[in-house]
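Example with several molecule types.
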Amino acid sequence: MKPIKLSRKRLCSLAATVVLTAVFVNLSAQRAPVYSAARSSRAAKPASSASPVYARDIAPIVLHACASCHQPGTAAPFSLLTYDDVKKRAPQIAELTRTRYMPPWLPKPGHGDFAGVRRLSDGQIRMIANWVKAGAPEGPHISQRTPARPQKTWPLGRPDLVVRMTQPFTLNAGDVEQCRSFLFPRFLIRDRALKAVDYRASAPGVVRHASLFADSTRKARLQQQQSGAVGWTDFPGSAGPGRRRLGEWAVGSPPVQFPKGSAMRLAPGDDLVLQLRFQPNGRQENERSEIALYFSDAPLPPPAMLALGNAWINLRPNEIATVTDAFTLPVAARLYAISPHAELMCRAIRADATLPNGAAQPLLWIPNFNLDWAEPLRYRAPMDLPAGTRITVTIDYDNSAHNPRNAEDTPMVSGAATGCTDEYAGVEFQITALQPRDIPALSQALAAKGATYTVQSSGATGHG
Amino acid sequence: MLNFAPCPIQALLAAIRNRCYNIVNLRFGRWYILENRKSARTRTIKRSAIFYSALLMGQLLPVFAPQSRVSAAESSLSKPAILLQDLNGRATPAFDGAAHKASVYFFIIHDCPICNTYAPEINQICQDYKTADIAFHIVYAENGLSPALAQKHAAERQFSCPALLDPRRQLVKFTGAAIAPEAVVLSPERKVLYRGRIDNRMLGWGVTHMANVHELRDALTAIQDGRPVAKPWKAPIGCAISTP
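Resulting structure tokens for the full complex:
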């Protein structure tokens, strides 16, 4: 074979050609994946078993955990029933599930085993994040069970009595977020035993939270008279003598049912007071709420309600406060449900039981309280607690600039932001005596329990 | 004599084999090997140099270009014609020639709860700065929203300024808006004077309070008074504007 002769010029030309070719090929190779990734957001690339697709991996999560509220006719602002609905908001869904803002569920796992848990697992959240990162592919269609559509009928069946606001309340487009109470005066003509109660808003898009009270003090009537409008502000919603909390609903909350074998007694002179928290949606809305009442034919003993804390506190700017309270069960009792009550500046709520043998039983821990999603929490199975068990609650408030709910750099007097007056701190426990013979003893002990809470504060907290 | 090879390596080998090693050229996706004539060789070398230089520049420029998400409005002072839709579905220019001081665009999504919460404040701002040579527009930054539904939404919110639909996100891309509700203020030269949240009432999802920092109002007051708009701009909390 003849040796190839190369002149210097030819060699330089060849070398330049080779170098330039190599650079071109190299740069093209580096950029190619970026280009293809950007183009393949909804490309029909075959889904490997590792990359999540909507139909197989995401739809079961979204339809179970989100779409029961996010569908037409519910309080949630938009629907998440179809792939297009979900794809449109895919980055938002990934972000809100990552921060656990959605689906709303306040209790920390391991502190009470509750029914109706809406919390997503870490794996499910990771799956959603990976799906969004992969461009939210749809995948081959798989038939899915969609959640039940919202019905015009009541979930517990036909109520024995439905009371409705006599006049609608108009929330104007320019109104601010606010609390307002509405009176349903003397709604009964004879004594009744209330075993369940449900609530329905006519404008669910603006009602964020509802609490229902039975008031025998007549004070609510006076407040309504003085108001001269539909409803009034400033109803102290704490439970107490003459004022009992019947129910509480956040968006998506189920009906309230009292423990089997018990019912709340309602007298003919009692008034119902419905306290609503409104969040305007930029247009005028008329709200005319309905309350469905379910009565028991037989007279039943009332469920015992243990209210711990039950304190009104007025936080000054930069004030940090902790409300604690405790109660020792005089008899063996069965715990059915727990209702945390607090307002805007509450950071955390914790409830624990210390058994007579010293063992600790966590009942509830909400590390990041959010008033929007406060609701009664029913245990999956009632919890039996022996006599001598000490139940303690701790409620932390933070009105400093470190609380994200405070205005930037400017802590405000609590409550002023929403139109609801002061901050409230309380936890209610729905209990019954384990043995029927102990019912009077438990009732007496609860009635005799006065205000036993203590407030530790960094400032001059007012409370009452 | 003209020959070609399907890839550069084969072309190179063929060139060496045929002693045509200096006249390898790329045209129309093929690697051509030309005769070893001096004139052809010189011409081809020149062509190759020009071709590869252009190719190299094309490859290198994006690599060394800044990667920040600078909007077209910030990078260009030209006045591009962007046509959006009005609430009757008619093509409408995005920019208002009558705005002597600034044009304000409120990017919203009709079913975003945070956008809807802001509707009264948007109306109030339009009202308060009406006489300041500032034009206001609502921009629906979403696809699949019919003009009729947008019309209903705008009527319910009583928007006092004109509303536009941007289903192809043309104005979104031009201004760099990313989250609804986001306010963008453009100068008459289409330069971004302000882009960010309207005020600080939302500090996170579910974290609301009474606003006490009003960045958009501050920016508009500064523009009104002929002062520069204060920075940094804070991103809004709200619904992500998706790609079309």
